[in-house]
């Protein structure tokens, strides 16, 4: 099992990539090459996107089980207990953890109108993403592989487009 930086209550303390200048973390889990075979139960303040790159993954969020094939992605809302493990040994999973303040400052107009309604929605623990939203997630992934000037601004722009695509999948009251 992957060793996580957990508090006693199971909350993971996410380490952000300071080079990205935003409270986000990109993690690649290559289970064939890793010294671990699963990521155990935990939760965090960040929202999370999982994208299966290869193989098959089983992801549990609260009491719900999701099975992801290559090219499929899952959104996990902030504060939800979850774990994952590969169903095939060659499985690779890309994970994006985003603190909601990467999208807008807490208390800001965008935060109140578009971010808090989702992160505070008790009815949305996780969501299998549509092809359009997976495409937006893939665009963000591609962007992080390019080391270009003003990258943090490009990351935020891609994150906002990803969030917009996600909100179009969930009928929240505005």
Description of the structure:
Strand 4 and strand 5 (64-68) form a beta hairpin. The chain has helices at 109-119, 131-145, 151-167, and strands at 24-30, 39-42, 47-54, 57-61, 64-68, 73-76, 82-86, 92-98, 126-128. It contains three helices and nine strands; from the N terminus they run ββββββββαβαα. With 174 residues, the protein is α+β, with helices and mostly antiparallel strands. The strands form two sheets. It has a five-stranded antiparallel β-sheet with strand order 1-8-3-6-9, with helices on one face. It starts with 23 loop residues before the first strand and ends in a 7-residue tail after the last helix.
Q: How would you summarize what this structure contains?
A:
The protein has 174 residues and is α+β, with helices and mostly antiparallel strands. 25% of the residues lie in helices and 28% in strands. The strands form 2 sheets. It has a 5-stranded antiparallel beta sheet, with helices on one face. Strands 2-7-4-5 form a 4-stranded antiparallel beta sheet, with no helix packed on it.
